[in-house]
Fold this sequence. Notes:
Chain A has eleven helices and no strands. Chain A is an all-alpha fold.
Amino acid sequence: MSTAMTADLGVGAATGLAAMSDVELIARVADADAAALEVLYDRYSRVVYSFGLRIVGDPQLAEELLQEVFLRAWQQGAAFRETRGAFVTWLLSITHNMAIDEVRKRRRRPQKADSAEPELLLAGLPDTRQDVEDEVWLSSLRATIIQAMERLPPAQREAIDMAYFQGLTQREISERLGEPLGTIKTRMRLGIQKLREQLGEQLGDVIETNEVKPT
Amino acid sequence: MIGCAPFPPSDPSSPSTGMPNLILDCASVEELAPAFALGALEDSEGMQVTRHCAVCPRCALLLAQAKSAVSFLPFMVDPVEAPPSAKHALFARIDAENVSSPPAAASASIWTPSLAASTPTLPSSRAIPPTHPVGDPPSRRSGRRLPSSWSMLIAPLAAVPLVLALAIVGGWAMQAQARLQDQKTVLTKMRHENAALSAQVGAPVANAAPLTYNARSFTMAPPKGSTPSKAGGTLSSASGSSNAQLLVWNLPTTSTSTDFQVEVEATDGARFSAGTVTIGLDGRGSATLNFPTPIDACRFVHIRPMNGDDIGGAANAASPLDVLVAEINGTLGGNPGTDAYSNAH
């Protein structure tokens, strides 16, 4: 079904899809329902794009990454298993893997002299907010996670950031920082342990569902 | 707390050949699990963690907990709107690729009850007045007009052929619609099966080390003297690599034997575990293997049931339980194997 047909479905059908859960929608995507994918895209394109941009640091690359992630969801929607976690977690896991692969590939190639820092790129991009309720919930979640990260010792926070957002292995981090490999391993382990403890206290059941409320 | 699988502590070397023991213990996995969740492990380390967690519920839980915490990190990023061009480009690609979408359901059946109820209008005619009281015998061929009761039946009777024709056509349309629905169901099922197979094949490939220019593949086949079967497989690796990707098919399984041990044989005949492969109901399986040495230093690769069942191996062979064997490097010498098969490059 072409997305052009989405407009032909009428208000009733579109409203019905928008009210469905992620699990229901991805099941329809597995059945080649492009309208269902469109709903999922509208829900999660911002977080996927932003996350990808944070890692790759290039808006053009981040846009291509966004397309590839949702194309993967379209092609492998049947592979999603609700028992393994929330759909958005699956989607962001794909995003992370693809983005890190790209970053590691680029590390082996000469980089552009004018590539900006990811944080600066994000600061310069407009944020057109849509649904107020979703935005408030996401803002609250973001603040909670940022707060939890800021409570970590700087060394642990740095190790997690270098691994997760820069795609460096423990060995590479150890070499860059001039620290023993065992020290880096311990920092990562303790950092994630503390992060989990703090997020578990504050987010509770949200950790289990981790799903954006339908509009 | 859930108990761990009985893994021995890390041993610097194995007793017979001095090759390093690469089996991780739970303490090591507990230390590496957060880095695994962050994507900060080397490929070989990641594979070892995966293999350990596949058989150790406690460590699998630890890994899941680490992944759960890491899964929130993307939400730290300040969200910004994606360019509209991304959405247009994505769905244009999907439309272009969507060639197997089944046709839309028939908008309306050709036959509908409303059509059956309607009758063709007859040319207007004067009402035929009754010429005889009710009960009189039918008129003869004397030119007298038909009784009014008969004239009232003409119109409905004239409509019967039309109704029959519509019913036949409508029935055919409903059958065609049912066949289309069946085909759609079959297509959906095939798509699901294809996706499942793709995930089964793609996952180990995605996690495996990239094959280099010197990539080689070896044919796995039943050993000589074994029960004839259509079992087979391929082992793909690269020169100098300690990793390999295994695909097997038509492996015989029993109710108690779906897991197979993969072992690599060194020049002196010593065998080392390279991993396991689980076979599905269709006899197919895939796995990413980890050899203790680069593959070039291996002589044979053997596959046999993990529980020791004899499901058709060669009774007189050096390894009677083997169901598949591949010769990696026959020039290494050692005991001539009974399981030599040609290599495919």
